[in-house]
Amino acid sequence: MAWILAKQIATAIHSGFNRHYRWYRITTGGARQWFEDADWEEVQRTARERISYYDRHVRETIAGLRSEFAIQDLDERLWQRVKVEYLRLLPEHHQPELAETYYNSVFCHLFHRTYYNNEFIFVWPVISTEHLESEVPSFRCYYPARDGFAQILCEILSGFGFRLPFHAIRSDIRNLIRAMRVRFPRGQDRRENFQLVVLSQAFYRNKGAYIIGKAINGADQIPFVIPILNDENGGLYMDTLLTGSDEIGDIFSFSRAYFMVDTEVPAAIVEFLRPLMPHKGKAELYTAIGLHKFGKAEFYRSFLKHLRYSNDELVVAPGIRGMVMCVFTLASFPYVFKVIKDRFPPPKATTRQAVMQKYQLVKLHDRVGRMADSWEYSDVAFPRERFSDALLTRLREEAAGSLSIEGDQVVIRHLYIERRMRPLNLYLESADAGQLRHAIREYGNAIRQLAAANIFPGDLLFKNFGVTRQGRVVFYDYDEICYLTECNFREIPEAPFPEMELADEPWYTAAPGDVFPEEFATFLLPDPRIRDCFLEYHRELLDAAWWRQRQERIRMGHLEDVFAYPLERRFRHARP
Q1: Helices and strands (H, E) in the chain, number of each type
Q2: What are the per-10-residue average pLDDT scores of the chain (576 residues)?
Q3: What is the DSSP string of 22-59?
Q4: Confidence (pLDDT) at 575
Q5: Catalytic residue from among 250, 373, 477, 479
Q6: 184, 222 contact by CB (below 8 A)
Q7: Run of H or E residues at 544
Q8: Is the distance from CB of 164 to CB of 235 less than 8 angstroms?
Q9: Structural domain spans, the chain
């Protein structure tokens, strides 16, 4: 009978998702041990592998369906029933929103996009996650008025089960209390309704663990994060206290690698985080905790809803026209859409596949707060009426191979979506002296931190960097990106004859992979204001020896410290 077959198919997809999430939790569950063992190589390897788990498990599920049920063409009535049967498996599920997305992924790999509607897939979620909770509470509450800050902080730390001791726990707690007194004036902690509410699981990323919570004082909720670091000598220490939605939001930035946090009910974690960072949507928060596929689905839902309640046009994004990507945006929506061009004019010597591989490199790599993450989509349908004539003309000229018009829809075969930033070159044009100084210092810091993560941007022009809402400079043009250790940093050889230095063409040759840092000044620093500021803060970036030293440290296995907060905020800076 058809309903029996539908139930069997639904159960097979549901089992595939459950296997996937078990693997996800097993992987994530090792984060604390790797952190305490200071096994940074394993941290980075696992973070890369975890990103690919989802697609691999979807492929395994599809292969099983085709083998067991001989699925070929779509039987509409059967698959409508499959969705109903799948829904019946979700009411007691602890990750229903993820399970719905997994179902969508399986279906969309099996059948044509004309069936990507709510009859067959979960365009809109069905199961509510608002009040989902796990058997173990997702957060714990503490009352300083009853036990005092020092005792409460000890209890908070012990609740995470760290195996390693805190080498200077008294000093750490004094530093933390001193920082809390600045943010929470004396007397507040003595009120009976003053609480510290802390998520039960630590968040792990790179070389740090993060305790995340909020202070509740009457109607006020003040978010806070306590970064915990490993001194690599058998002990831990609290590095600083971060408070407020902007500082916390930077920890969860789209330009940073995904966290590892072991959770049975991810919706409960996200519900806790949302009020702490009201400028971040559910899509960004799910993505930040490593559930980027659901983040991608949730983003698309928010975009569909935005289209329904807005009427401005999609237009060509402001800035210098790129040679590899056609970029467009919607003024009322804070993202850009990037489509790979059909052809790349000289001197670009790359391919579509190579560009896609660069974006995947960034997805898998530690972005250290300096590379924009992106969601990758296929076969995306936009309303034709929302395209400006200029944009549609540009797409037809530059990316016709990725474009099709189907009735009242424009379908783009493949695109990337990123947070919109103001291009650094445009920012500098209107910056005052203080803004320019800050931006150039940030620009150089971005290059330094990318180098620390074994990344060389390739093209350092200001147009390839953007300025975020918080004033951070982030790299976002990846077609020439490469590993730092693949480059050959050279000094410019002395000219055989002095007059050759004035010639239009260089007197020296460059092999593939050669980089001459002295040249950066020529094409980056013609403006005297920018040049003076850059040389004040980042003169060594023009020295090939500096770059070779970075390469040597990487080859020796040294992982640089890159902090997601200003260095002056660190407690250890205040220690003798």
Answers
A1: 19, 20
A2: 89 97 94 95 93 95 94 91 96 95 96 91 91 86 84 91 92 90 65 84 96 88 94 92 93 95 95 94 96 96 95 94 94 96 89 95 93 95 96 96 94 96 95 96 97 95 94 94 96 70 66 91 92 96 97 92 90 57
A3: HHHHHHHHTHHHHHHTT-HHHHHHHHHHHHHHHHHHHH
A4: 44
A5: 373
A6: yes
A7: helix 544-555
A8: yes
A9: 2-115, 139-290, 310-420, 424-542
Query: Would you call 204 exposed, middle or buried from its count of C-beta atoms within 10 A (0-12, 13-18, 19+)?
Result: buried
Cβ neighbours of 457 (radius 10 Å): 22
CA–CA dist 79, 74 (Å, integer): 7
Distance, in Å, from the CA atom of 515 to the CA atom of 496, rounded to the nearest integer, reads 20
Q: Which of 425, 416, 476 is nearest to 446 (CA)?
A: 476
Strand pairing report for 514-515 and 488-489: parallel
How many C-beta neighbours within 10 Å does residue 399 have? 20
Residues near 326 by Cβ (< 8 Å), separated by ≥ 6?
A: 338, 339, 340, 341, 394, 395, 398, 399
Question: CA dihedral defined by 491, 494, 496, 500, rounded to 10 degrees?
Answer: 90
Smallest Cα–Cα separation from 180: which of 144, 205, 209, 155?
144
Q: Take residue 85 and report the two structure tokens written for it.
A: 């049967």
Give the 3-state secondary structure of residue 213: strand
- 312 tagged catalytic: no
Kindly state the tokens that stand for 503. 């010639």
How far is it, in rounded angstroms, from Cα 295 to Cα 289? Answer: 10
State pTM to two decimals: 0.93
Correct CATH for 424-542 of 2.60.120, 1.10.510, 1.20.120, 3.40.50:
1.10.510
